[in-house]
Design a protein that fits this description.
By secondary structure, the protein is of the alpha+beta class. It is built from 7 helices and 20 strands. The protein has helices at residues 34-47, 82-87, 165-171, 174-177, 227-235, 260-267, 273-284; strands spanning 3-10, 13-20, 23-26, 56-58, 63-65, 74-78, 99-103, 108-109, 115-117, 124-125, 128-134, 153-160, 163-164, 184-185, 190-192, 204-210, 213-219, 245-250, 296-303, 309-319. The radius of gyration is 20 Å and the shape is globular.
Length: 329
């Protein structure tokens, strides 16, 4: 059975530990990054249950941090579930290519931290996704299969790919619209997988609630481009390192809901940017689903049998009080 690893802050110091019931077994080693933990601390984590005189502290008495740390590549798969493709005005069937984009690692935040809505963003959306943490250096093209996937994956995390749709769509700025600070709540746990548990990656239940209303419910079996295939493809394009994060896509149920006509409008080069923005916001605000200040998003990912449990993420939306340069233009 795999183990749940946490990175946490106590008395202004960062530590790593292993979850045991409602407590954390504190690792003696200090690791400055997830990459360092995977290289040096993973062995200690896997042996901690057999050690004596290990410090144990309550989970609810510390500040849980994102287990994914900077610097890290955050590589995302877009529209990778049929249900999400349909609600964005696309064909539901598997597309001819894997949609790949990235998020800035400065968007990483904790599983219980606040999501700061930039003051100019009106269409703030949520996207619950399964995150896969790279466990092995990849610097050349490799063929990854379900049989050797365990050699390349260290573990799994919950990721909320928070998105400013009124930046992402009319500007065509996926990186920008998804990379504001706090837009990548991650954790609370990094689940380190046993080799025998790898098949469960294809049968994980993903649920997201906004203010206790279930909005998203999907299963990782529905992924159109699955992890092994995606890692093989990415290895042909770029290097990946231990601690990097692959975000596999979101299921249906997000606030965004586009028709082919609205998609055509957004892509129309003869319409000014401001017209696109105004029409998109007017069209989308008819929905009551977009996140508002004070909303709470709760996320869970686990296997049906409970063997794999990535914990529960809970984040509150607040308005970023800093003056935006965009507001002053």
């Amino acid at each position: 059975m795999g183990i749940q690893v946490v990175r946490f802050e106590r008395e202004s110091n960062e530590h790593w530990g292993v979850v045991s019931g409602e407590n954390i077994l504190v690792l003696s080693g200090t690791y400055k990054s997830l990459a360092e933990f995977l290289y040096v601390g993973k062995e200690e984590a896997t042996k901690i249950y057999n050690q004596e005189n290990v410090e144990s502290i309550p989970l609810n008495e510390v500040n849980i941090l994102s287990p994914v740390t900077k610097p890290a590549r955050i590589i995302c798969q877009g529209v990778n579930y049929s249900t999400h493709r349909s609600e964005t005005g696309m064909e539901a069937s598997r597309p001819p290519f894997n949609m790949i984009f990235s998020k800035a690692d400065s968007s990483l935040s904790g599983a219980y931290s606040e999501i700061e809505r930039p003051s100019h963003v009106k269409l703030l959306d949520y996207e619950l996704e399964l995150g896969i943490v790279i466990g092995k250096e990849i610097s050349e093209s490799v063929e990854v299969t379900d049989e050797n996937l365990h050699q390349y994956i260290a573990g799994l995390v919950i990721v909320n790919d928070v998105s400013a749709r009124d930046v992402q769509l009319p500007q065509g700025q996926w990186l920008k619209g998804k990379s504001f600070r706090t837009f990548c709540p991650t954790g609370p746990f990094l689940y380190l997988l046993d080799k025998e548990e790898l098949p469960l990656i294809h049968d994980l239940k993903l649920d997201l609630w906004v203010n206790d209303e279930l909005r998203q419910s999907a299963n990782s079996s529905q992924l159109l481009y699955k992890p092994a295939e995606t890692l093989s493809e990415l290895s042909e394009v770029m290097d990946l390192s231990p601690g990097d994060l692959i975000v596999t896509g979101t299921g249906g149920g997000v606030a965004l809901n586009l028709t082919p006509e609205v998609n055509e409008l957004v892509a129309n080069l003869s319409i000014s940017y401001q017209q696109k923005l105004d029409l998109l916001v007017e069209n989308q605000l008819k929905s009551e689903k977009y996140l508002k200040d004070g909303d709470t998003i709760r996320c869970k990912i686990k296997s049906a049998d409970g063997v794999i449990d990535l914990g529960e993420q809970m984040n509150k939306v607040v308005r970023n009080k800093e003056k935006s340069l965009i507001d002053s233009k």
